[in-house]
Amino acid sequence: MFEAVELGRKLDKKDYKKQASYYRDKLLFAQFALVNAGAPVYILLEGVDNTCKGEVVNLLNQWLDTRGLEVTGFGPKTDEEAERPRFWRYWRTFPARGSFGLFYGSWYTGELIKRTLEKQSKVDFDSHMLRINRLESMLAQDGALILKFWLHTSKAYQKSKFKELKKDKHGRWQVSELDKALHERYSDYIKAAERAVRLTDQPEAPWIVVESEDDYFRNIMVAKTILQAFENRLAEKKEDVESTKSASAKKPPGDFPTETVLNQIDLSAELSREEYETRLELAQTRLNSLSWRAYHQGVSTVMLFEGWDAAGKGGAIRRIMEAIDARIARVISIAAPTDEEKAHHYLWRFWRHVPRAGRATIYDRSWYGRVLVERVEGYASIDEWRRAYSEINDFEEQLCNHGNVLLKFWLHIDQEEQLSRFEERKATPRKRYKITDEDWRNREKWPAYEQAAHEMIMRTSTDYAPWTLVPANSKRHARVTVLEAVCDRLERALQEKRG
Known about the structure:
By secondary structure, this protein is an alpha/beta fold. It folds into 2 domains: 2-245, Rossmann fold (3-Layer(aba) Sandwich), CATH 3.40.50.300; 273-498, Rossmann fold, CATH 3.40.50. It contains 20 helices and 10 strands. The protein has helices at 13-37, 50-63, 79-82, 88-91, 109-116, 122-141, 155-167, 177-184, 186-200, 215-249, 273-297, 313-323, 339-342, 348-351, 373-377, 382-401, 415-427, 437-443, 446-460, 475-498; strands at 41-46, 69-73, 100-104, 145-152, 207-211, 301-307, 329-333, 360-364, 405-412, 467-471. A 5-stranded parallel sheet has the order 2-3-1-4-5, sandwiched between helices. Strands 7-8-6-9-10 form a 5-stranded parallel sheet, sandwiched between helices. The longest helix has 35 residues, at 215-249. Mean pLDDT is 92; it is low at 244-253.
């Protein structure tokens, strides 16, 4: 593939200055228009020669407005990054809508290096590329403009660059031992890059190969490509907005099946106060011990709670937090997204809170809002919530592959029990804050929410992240069931880690 790239093309200085003046102005105007259109832009720079990437970064920092332009380079993982799933470090740097992310190296770089140095098998490399493909497709479907540049240079050119930098006492630092090792394996690096391009080149996230041995030619080609992509996106934006409005206006089907996975749950289970207190104390004592063992062994835990309003999610979470030391666990309560959260992909705010090794994060409501409240209330288009099932499954698979213990609870009550709890909250001053007009309105949409929950459970209960459906008409039974399930799963994970 790269063998077909015609190296050696040049641009003279006079012509470069003329074109540079033109593209600089056009890029700036297009950038402002994209900011107003609210599109997040990803510009990735990859290539064997790091100096080329650095020069393009400097160029774009000069030609674009740096307000809203963030440059990110990825080096070796920090301890904090190594203790979380691989993509966590990248999600933290993703640009918001109307902002531009310029990536000097990217989620490809580490994989290319490991494959080149034979620290990764071809199967694992391909697996990572396919995961990247899904990530970029997901971001693009959410409105991101993604441009991936391969700045191509020959081995001979890189060798000559090394010689130049070696003579420059201010530039020697730019050539590391890793750069030298990769240079020795230039052909292997190119083979890995060619495979990465083949596996991840897609219309919504294309690769652009740019001959980069002449600075002037390279700069103009990069600027020209970016400008064309900006203008194409702006031309499409009006049509996209109209189609999104149309899709959002559509409602899911109004006829719901009478049989769902939820109405098969037996809600008659009860516990006496005496049995409840005995089992509660045993489970909390056990969880306290297990949570500290998990902390010392570096086993992270992610728990999420979904269910009907007033189903007892908060009560179950409180009993868990009574057992786990607050220094190694935290609760993330999910409400309507903030402006900052709305400016990113919906999974962004959940990736941010993925725990470090040995810690626990409890989500009081979760990423499943996309296929529950956003689906039923029309906040997400049909296309958005339908593709969310695979996006969520992929997210959870990454958590589990990294070694996180993931528990998903649906707390289920019937309509009569919910009404009783609503009335109790209304009559009790200290509980009155828990009940809102929206809670009452949601009761009118019970069939729609039940169908959404049924489909959610059927599509996202996987072997690595199954749902636990908790009968919750009895608060005592629900709390003990949750605690014992957490203990059982955590104990199993610790046994598996011990081998």
